[in-house]
What does this fold into?
Amino acid sequence: MKKILVIGALGQIGSELAAAFNERYGKENIIVADVADDKNKLFPGNIFEKIDVTDSDSIEAAIKRHGIDTIVNLAAILSATGEKNPALAWKINIDGLLNVIHSGIKYKLDRIMVPSSIAVFGPQSVLYNTPQDTVLVPNTMYGVTKVVGEMLGDYYFKKTGLDFRGIRYPGVISNKTMPGGGTTDYAVEIFYEAVKNKKYTCFLSAESCLPMIYMPDCIRATIMLLEADRSKLRHCGNYNVGAMSFTPEILADEIKKHIPEFTIDYRPDFRREIARYWPASVDDSAARAEWGWQPEWDLPHTVADMLGTIGSRNL
It folds into this structure.
């Protein structure tokens, strides 16, 4: 990898992943891109490209202009937003993905990384310790697009040799850029509300158990897979990655250890039905065996770090 294009660099994961890439590979080798303008100047030292993944010309122009050999495509419509606009989710998540794939093949890129999600699982999947290889019949359009995305990556790898890689991200907890329309967003919102208002109303039920990962582990896993030896990888774009699992009630109890007066109440909405059929935990033995995955952050350390970081700001 010599020149990496990060599409969706202004989002929750993209903003921190691109920053990590800058430190690891050098700003001069990282081209950041998004459909929106970088109004907050998150990347003043990087070349910024305005790219809409549904416009193949904009992708190809960036590849040719900067000699790109690797693309990390984070552009996506997430689960909750996707249920409100399924057609848009398909357009961005599949039509956009195909543009990235076709560009990768056309310009013989070294590799492409496109995240998948635990949203690929559904009512027919095993709820606890969900296997790497299992039935994938999701209950959201976002999940449908991620299953199709995994299949497209596998198809083009076998047909063309395109090096396609991806992780089934669990819920991602971060304190820099807010998430945008996912079912696990509560696990970020709750920290801001705990610090600012000492209370939170959760859109999931108290017992909704989901796998989660803290952003430092998410970034580390992404880089590990991106740099992994292709000959050791038996899968393409669908690696399960686990770190921790908890319910809103368990998370709230951990927060109370730091903020005793914090209270939580529950007002479940349509996202509760989405979460009901997602895994409570995943079997990530394939990632551990094939590219050495091992999480470093557990719930107590994540909560302490989140509250400490957010509490140091003037909210």
Summary: The domain at 4-169+214-240 is CATH 3.40.50.720 (Rossmann fold). The chain has two domains: 4-169+214-240, 172-212+244-311. The two ends are 40 Å apart (CA to CA). The chain has a mean pLDDT of 96.
